[in-house]
C-alpha cells in the first residue's frame, strides 16, 4: 500500500532521515517505535506530504505521492497529528465536519451521506456529550478524540496516527486503540501508528518498524522482531520479552 | 454569544431598515415617513420632496449601506486570512494603497473614472503583496511584522497621496474631503456603480465561507484535508482587498469598520463564518448608516465626513475591545 524508497530528509542541513526504505502492506497495522528524536514523526510527515524531502520516492497505492491531487490524497490517507491545536471558535462537531472537506465540491452543500458519516464518527469516538462544545474548552484527551473523529470521517484507506494516545486517560488510550484496531480489522484500513508505549505497540500491531537516529533498526512481524537484545540496543533498557495471554509484552527489570 | 442566531440576524435586518429610513428622512430638511413611503410606492408627492429623496438621500443612504457592508465583509475575510484580530484593510495600509491609485485616477486621469474600483483594487492588491513580503519570516506571517509593516506602508502611501493632491491643488478641497471618507457629492451614478461592484464582491465573498472556516484550523491540518493553504489564503485575501477597494474608490479611506465590526459580530454570533460573515456585513451597514445619520442630526447644516465620525466612535470602542479581548 505504501512504499518508501531511499528517503532522506534534513532540517537546516542536519540529516533527520537517512536513506530509509520501508514497505507497508495493505490492511496491516504497523506500529513505529523508537526513542525521542529518532525521526518517527518526520517519516510519517514525509508520507503525508507535510514536509519536503531531499531525495527518495514515496509510493501510495501504486502511485507516486507527488502525483496525487491534494483532495484525492486526502481521500486516500488521513493523518492525525500529535498535537491537535485548539482552534478558536470551532466546536467538536465542526471539526468532524471538516473531515468531509476532501469530498466537498465547489458550491455543493453537505450531502446526506456526509451527515451519516459525521454522525458515525461522533458515535464511534464518544464525542456525543460534548459535540457542541468549543475545542478550546475541552480537555486534551477530549480534543484528541475530536481530531480522531475528523480523521476517520475522511473515510480513507490509510490512517496514519502520530502518538494518538498522548494526553489520554488510560481508559481512552485503550478505547482509541481498540477503535483503530477495529477499523483496521473490519474495514481493512491500513494503519500506521507511532506509539510511545512499547507494550501498546506489541499488543496492537502486526508489523513493527523500530527506528533509531534516523535509520530503521528492524522492520517486520511484531512477534519475531522484538527481542530483549533489540530493546537493549535501541532503548538501553534491560528487559524480558514475555507472552501473557497470547500477547507479547516487555517486562522491564 | 446569543442562543438564537436567526433571531439575532432578523433583528439586525430590522435595525438596518430603521437606520436606512432615518438617513432618508433626516438631513438639511426633514421628510416625513409617509412622504418617503409615497415616493417608493409611486404616489404623487411634491417635486422638491421627490428630488430630495430620490436624488440626494437615497444615493447617500445606499452608499452608507454598501460602504459598511463591503468594509465589514473585507475585515471579516482579512482577519480569517491573517488569523489576527488586529488585521484590517485600513490598519494594514491596503486602503491607502487603493486610495493612492483612486486619487490618481480622480485628479490626474479622470477619463478612467468608471474603472475607479478596478484601479483601487490594483492598488490594494499590490500593497497586500508588498505587505506579505515584508511580514513573512521563516515562511510564516509574523503578527508584529504585519502590523508594523502596515503602519509604514500607510504612512508611505499617505505621503504619495499628499504629493498628488498638492500638485493638483485646485481640487484640494474635494480631495481632502474624499480622503477623510465623505459621502458628500455622492450622486446617483456613483451610488449605482458602488452598488454593482459591491453586490458582486459580497456575493463572491459568500462562496468563501467554507474556506474562511477552514482557515480557523492550523496550516498542517488544512493541508491534511486536501487544501492548498497558500492558495486558499490568496483567494480569500484577494476578495477582501477588492471589497475594501470598492468602498475606498467612492468614499475614500474609512477606518475602524473592518477592524471593529467583525469583532462585535463574533461576540454576538460566534466564529462560524456561515453566520459571522453575513451578520458582520449587516452590522457594518448599520454602523455606517447610524454614524452618518447621527452626524447629520448633530452637526447639521455643517457636513462632517462620516469617516471622522466613525473613527470618533470606533477608536474608543476598539480600545475597549483591546482591553477586554487581546
UniProtKB/TrEMBL annotation, chain A:
PANTHER family: FERRICHROME TRANSPORT ATP-BINDING PROTEIN FHUC, IRON(3+)-HYDROXAMATE IMPORT ATP-BINDING PROTEIN FHUC. This is ABC transporter ATP-binding protein. Pfam families: ABC_tran (PF00005). Residues 2-238 form the ABC transporter domain. It is found in: Cell membrane. Its main location: membrane. It comes from Alkaliphilus pronyensis. One of its GO terms (molecular function) is ATP binding. The keyword ATP-binding applies. GO terms for cellular component: plasma membrane. InterPro entries: AAA+_ATPase (IPR003593), ABC_transporter-like_ATP-bd (IPR003439), ABC_transporter-like_CS (IPR017871), P-loop_NTPase (IPR027417), Siderophore_ABC-ATPase (IPR051535). SUPFAM superfamilies: P-loop containing nucleoside triphosphate hydrolases. GO terms for biological process: iron ion transport. Signal peptide: none annotated.
From TrEMBL, chain B:
The keyword DNA damage does not apply. It holds the Pfam family FecCD. InterPro entries: ABC_BtuC-like, ABC_transptr_permease_BtuC. GO terms for biological process: siderophore-iron import into cell. The chain crosses the membrane at residues 58-78, 90-109, 115-134, 146-169, 189-210, 231-261, 273-290, 302-322. One of its GO terms (molecular function) is transmembrane transporter activity. The keyword rRNA processing does not apply. Keywords: Cell membrane, Membrane, Transmembrane, Transmembrane helix, Transport. GO terms for cellular component: plasma membrane. Belongs to the binding-protein-dependent transport system permease family. FecCD subfamily. This is Iron ABC transporter permease. It comes from Alkaliphilus pronyensis. The lineage of its organism: Bacteria, Bacillati, Bacillota, Clostridia, Peptostreptococcales.
Amino acid at each position: 500500500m505504501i512504499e518508501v524508497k531511499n528517503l532522506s530528509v534534513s532540517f537546516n542541513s542536519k540529516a533527520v532521515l537517512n536513506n530509509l526504505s520501508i514497505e507497508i502492506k495493505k490492511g496491516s497495522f504497523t506500529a513505529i517505535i523508537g526513542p525521542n528524536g529518532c525521526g518517527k514523526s518526520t517519516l510519517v510527515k514525509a508520507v503525508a506530504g507535510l514536509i519536503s524531502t531531499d531525495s527518495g520516492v514515496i509510493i501510495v497505492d501504486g502511485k507516486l505521492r507527488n502525483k496525487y491531487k491534494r483532495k484525492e490524497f486526502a481521500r486516500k490517507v488521513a493523518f492525525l497529528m500529535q498535537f491537535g491545536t485548539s482552534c478558536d471558535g470551532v466546536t467538536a462537531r465542526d471539526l468532524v465536519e471538516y473531515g468531509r472537506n476532501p469530498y466537498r465540491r465547489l458550491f455543493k452543500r453537505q450531502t446526506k451521506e456526509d451527515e451519516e458519516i459525521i454522525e458515525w464518527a461522533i458515535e464511534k469516538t464518544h464525542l456525543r456529550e460534548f459535540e457542541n462544545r468549543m475545542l478550546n474548552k475541552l480537555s486534551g484527551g477530549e480534543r484528541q478524540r475530536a481530531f480522531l473523529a475528523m480523521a476517520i470521517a475522511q473515510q480513507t484507506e490509510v490512517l496514519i496516527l502520530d502518538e494518538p494516545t498522548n494526553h489520554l486517560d488510560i481508559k481512552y488510550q485503550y478505547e482509541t486503540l481498540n477503535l483503530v484496531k477495529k477499523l483496521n480489522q473490519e474495514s481493512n484500513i491500513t494503519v500506521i501508528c507511532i506509539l510511545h508505549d512499547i507494550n501498546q505497540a506489541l499488543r496492537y500491531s502486526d508489523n513493527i518498524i523500530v527506528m533509531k537516529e534516523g535509520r530503521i533498526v528492524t522492520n517486520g512481524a511484531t512477534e519475531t522482531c522484538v527481542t530483549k537484545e533489540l530493546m537493549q540496543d535501541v532503548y538501553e533498557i534491560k528487559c524480558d520479552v514475555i507472552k501473557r495471554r497470547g500477547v507479547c509484552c516487555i517486562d522491564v527489570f | 454569544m446569543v442562543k438564537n442566531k436567526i433571531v439575532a440576524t432578523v433583528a439586525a435586518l430590522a435595525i438596518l431598515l430603521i437606520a436606512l429610513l432615518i438617513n432618508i428622512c433626516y438631513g438639511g430638511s426633514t421628510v416625513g415617513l409617509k412622504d418617503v413611503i409615497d415616493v417608493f410606492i409611486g404616489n404623487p408627492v411634491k417635486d422638491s420632496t421627490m428630488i430630495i429623496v430620490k436624488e440626494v438621500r437615497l444615493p447617500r443612504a445606499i452608499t452608507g449601506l454598501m460602504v459598511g457592508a463591503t468594509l465589514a465583509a473585507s475585515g471579516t475575510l482579512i482577519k480569517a486570512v491573517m488569523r489576527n484580530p488586529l488585521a484590517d484593510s485600513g490598519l494594514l495600509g491596503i486602503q491607502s494603497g487603493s486610495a493612492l491609485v483612486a486619487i490618481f485616477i480622480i485628479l490626474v486621469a479622470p477619463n478612467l473614472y468608471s474603472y475607479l474600483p478596478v484601479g483601487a483594487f490594483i492598488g490594494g492588491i499590490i500593497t497586500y503583496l508588498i505587505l506579505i513580503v515584508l511580514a513573512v519570516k521563516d515562511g510564516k506571517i509574523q503578527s508584529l511584522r504585519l502590523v508594523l509593516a502596515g503602519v509604514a506602508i500607510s504612512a508611505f502611501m499617505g505621503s504619495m497621496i499628499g504629493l498628488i493632491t498638492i500638485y493638483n491643488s485646485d481640487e484640494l478641497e474635494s480631495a481632502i474631503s474624499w480622503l477623510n471618507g465623505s459621502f458628500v457629492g455622492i450622486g446617483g451614478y456613483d451610488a449605482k456603480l458602488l452598488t454593482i461592484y459591491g453586490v458582486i464582491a459580497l456575493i463572491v465573498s459568500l462562496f468563501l465561507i467554507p474556506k474562511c472556516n477552514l482557515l480557523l484550523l492550523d496550516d498542517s491540518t488544512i493541508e491534511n484535508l486536501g487544501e492548498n493553504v497558500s492558495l486558499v489564503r490568496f483567494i480569500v485575501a484577494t476578495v477582501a482587498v477588492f471589497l475594501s477597494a470598492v468602498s475606498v474608490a467612492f468614499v475614500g479611506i474609512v477606518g475602524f469598520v473592518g477592524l471593529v465590526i467583525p469583532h462585535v459580530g463574533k461576540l454576538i454570533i460566534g466564529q462560524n463564518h456561515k453566520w459571522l460573515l453575513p451578520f458582520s456585513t449587516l452590522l457594518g451597514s448599520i454602523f455606517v448608516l447610524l454614524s452618518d445619520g447621527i452626524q447629520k442630526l448633530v452637526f447639521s447644516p455643517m457636513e462632517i465626513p462620516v469617516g471622522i465620525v466613525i473613527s470618533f466612535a470606533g477608536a474608543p470602542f476598539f480600545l475597549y475591545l483591546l482591553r477586554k479581548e487581546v
